Amino acid sequence: MSSSLAKTLAESARSFDSTGSEVDYEPAALRIARPSAKPASGVPVLAGPARLGCRELFKSYQKGSVGIPVLQGVHFDVSDGEFVAIIGASGSGKSTLLHLLGTLDKPDAGEVLFDGNRIDNLPATSRDLLRNRHFGMIFQAYHLLPELTAFENVLAPAYIYESTLGYWAKRKQYRQRAMELLELVGLADRAKHKPSELSGGEMQRTAIARALMLKPEVLLADEPTGNLDRSTGDQVMKTLCELNEKQNLTIIMVTHDPLIAGQADRTVQIAEGRIVG
Ligand SMILES: Nc1ncnc2c1ncn2[C@@H]1O[C@H](COP(=O)(O)OP(=O)(O)OP(=O)(O)O)[C@@H](O)[C@H]1O
């Protein structure tokens, strides 16, 4: 078991005291060591140990008494530092697969593995902590909090992650990181804007910055350019490609757009519940 995952799981066991109250622990932002940068050659890392993957994944949804099979034995791996696009027709199960990989939902059968360790069957608290520590997520509809500014939205995972005391103890570092992330996505001058005062591309870039707040190792992106026009979508893709290339961020992105998918290292196509190419 990798040491960082072992640490997360050990902490999930002791992050609640015997009364069930949450106990403060050191923030992920200060603990997760970044993997080394991708080689300058820019050659995609297609081989090497799997970071995130799944084995014979099955998932159906129940509609009344009828089961709708969506995933029917999906099996694939994503390497450290790889940028993979999942493509397929509408309704083929792309988002379902992403949610299972991100432990937002559970498969009916099969396994999801992170650094070789099974994660789909962890208790809910451990899955929450795992996502908080290791995964960042972005969605087509951004899911920003409308009453908060861009800066506060980026900071929000730190509030959620920390106890009040813990947050205040590290407030300065968190605020500095939130500002650095807004600079990274080119939005330093929009820090005080609320989502209603941002364009679609700016909202998505804010959501990317928020997803990076606690230094995830894997970014799961569900149609990140789906609501954007081509040129704004290109800006968002540029940001994702730079994060992948310069910071070795592993990215798994769902898209129905072949042009967007073409910017990833590798494309995985899903049809009729299976990987077909
Ligand atoms: N909660 C649910 N209950 C019942 N059926 C669902 C549920 N979520 C998804 N489905 C069905 O599962 C199938 C796969 O959905 P999913 O969202 O994974 O597809 P997708 O490939 O991401 O589609 P799109 O590209 O249109 O977003 C669809 O037929 C959808 O109607």
UniProtKB/TrEMBL annotation:
Gene Ontology MF term list: ATP binding; ATP hydrolysis activity; transmembrane transporter activity
E.C. no = 3.6.3.-
A Gene Ontology cellular component where this protein is annotated is: plasma membrane
This protein is called what? P-loop containing nucleoside triphosphate hydrolase
A Pfam match is: ABC_tran
Ranges for the ABC transporter domain? 52-276
Which key words are in the record?
Answer: ATP-binding, Hydrolase, Nucleotide-binding, Transport
Question: Which InterPro entries does its entry note?
Answer: AAA+_ATPase (IPR003593), ABC_transporter-like_ATP-bd (IPR003439), ABC_transpr_LolD-like (IPR015854), MacB-like_ATP-bd (IPR017911), P-loop_NTPase (IPR027417)
The family this protein is said to belong to: Belongs to the ABC transporter superfamily. Macrolide exporter (TC 3.A.1.122) family.
- By its UniProt entry, which PANTHER family does this protein fall under? IMPORT ATP-BINDING PROTEIN, LIPOPROTEIN-RELEASING SYSTEM ATP-BINDING PROTEIN LOLD
Organism of origin: Adhaeretor mobilis
